Amino acid sequence: MIVMMPRLFKTFAVLAALFHALAAGAELPRPVLQALKTAGIPAGSVGVVVQEVGAARPTLVHEAHDSMNPASVMKLVTTYAALELLGPAFRWKTEAYVDGNDVVLKGYGDPKLNYESFWMLLRNLRARGLRDIRGDLVLDRSYFGPVADGRIDDDAFRPYNVTPDALLVNFKSLRFSFAPVDSAVRVFAEPALPGLELVNSLKLAEGSCPEGKAFRSLIQAEFRSKPPRASFTGAYPLSCGEKELNVALYEPQEYVAAMVKQLWAEMGGTWTGVVRQGVASPNARLFYLHESEPLAEIVRDINKFSNNVMARQLYLTIAAEIGGPPARPELALVAIRQVLISRGIQAPELVMENGSGLSRVERASAGTIAAVLHAAWRSAVMPEFMSSLPVVAADGTMKKRLLGAGIAGNAHIKTGLLQDVRSIAGYVLDRQGRRYLVVMLINHPRASSEGEPVLNAMLEWVYEGATSRAGAKARPPSGGPQRP
Asked: Is the residue at 476 inside a domain?
């Protein structure tokens, strides 16, 4: 168990208090106001903080203390706290025991026990002399306590709705690939698990290629878990080229069973038993210990690509490492609050359900997110944290945004998107070489459909020189906090 040592930094305490106490409603920059008007979003639905890194006062503050849904920007709170609590070199383990004729796999919440990692785990069992599994494959998931499924919508087969699991293999997902070949559409699944029924009645067609749910509707994708079945019966536009669709089709236990059947047979091994839940007996022998990538790499996957399942796995890992297993989500929030308070960030409005931002109940203010960015900038884990954020117009969730703009390549920005929510938070290097932290949260019915140009306008305004063109300088109210 890791015990957090209290470290109180006066600068952070003053900064956090300042954000909370600053008067709301500072005038937003003209380009941002124009973008809001065009989008039909009132300024009161927006929370903003812009501040030069290391400066005593923000350049711009607007509704910064309001409690808002931050969407995936909440991942910044989770990943920063995890880096501080666990350290960038922290690794998850997965243990394999030989228990009589049975093999027991015990998981500790590895967020990235993907296809390749699981293949390596089984390959190492073979290399150490295990040729045949004569008994059962026992799955020990006891490191995590019961977890609510936490679905954000009714689309149960989307990977972002996968429930956390102490032994989550490959996100229990399949990747369906579609490739036009001659006059037909080829469809194949990876991994191609035994028992999967794949129905492909797709026909090549003309027209544009839609994205997201529109693409799934066009190809009339239908899925079933028991027995696993995927059906595609619509039209496939030639303009789509090669496309991929990730689907969480199997139940967790059945998924592991199918993976082992496929991979173990490919390695020349035999297995005659079944998969069941359980734990190792006192006489079980630890046969192999598999380790994950370090936390610094996991954090990059979480923030660059806004991976919700990995963020939820990390959130529960914090709970188990700090409070002991089985992991309970409320213990993760206790540990994260301890980190924030030790940096002088009180965050009374903070509500965390699963740490991913894929939630209708999670709340934070722009001021709290900004204070976290300041704390991270001054932390020893700053390089790992900052490098995990998407680079504008280069990678991750910002890869296709602001292409060709001056800010391209000059900002590390985490994005957030839910129905009625859009958000950004991160660091911008402006034209003069000054670095700013930027937070902007939009909560409004038009945010998800119309909010992106507003966020882009804010980023471009900061890049072009926020200090010289700020609409209003933030100033502490009378009786506000004083510098030490």
From this structure: no
Torsion (CA) 31, 35, 40, 44 in degrees, nearest 10: -50
Do 464 and 384 share a domain, yes or no?
A: yes
130 and 264 co-located in one domain: yes
Within a domain: 301: yes
Contact 80, 269 (CB under 8 A): no
Same domain, yes or no: 137 and 217: no
Whether pTM > 0.85 for this model: the answer is yes
Using CA atoms, how far residue 357 sits from 20, 350, 384, 433, in Å, is 22, 12, 21, 32
DSSP 140: E
Q: E-assigned strands of 326-475?
A: 411-418, 421-429, 435-443
Each residue of 164-213: pLDDT tens digit? 999 999 999 999 999 999 889 999 999 989 889 999 999 999 989 988 77
Separation between Cα atoms, residue 465 and residue 428, nearest integer Å: 10
β pairing state of 435-443 and 46-52: antiparallel
Q: Which residues, in sequence order, are CB contacts of 470 under 8 Å at separation 6+?
A: 29, 50, 59, 60
Q: Rounded mean pLDDT of the chain?
A: 90
Residue 215's pLDDT is what? 87
Identify the residue with better confidence: 253 or 16: 253
Give the C-alpha separation, 478 to 54, whole Å.
23
Q: What is the CATH number of the domain that holds 403?
A: 3.40.710.10
**H/E stretch holding 180:** strand 174-181
When pLDDT is cut at 50, 70 and 90, the band that residue 481 belongs to is very low
Least confident of 91-95, 155-159, 215-219, 416-420: 155-159
Same domain, 98 and 145: yes
- The CB-based long-range contact list for 255-261 (8 Å cut-off, 24+ gap) reads 255/169, 255/170, 255/172, 255/193, 256/105, 256/137, 256/139, 256/167, 256/169, 257/137, 258/193, 258/194, 258/195, 258/196, 259/115, 259/118, 259/169, 259/170, 259/191, 259/193, 260/122, 260/137, 261/193, 261/194
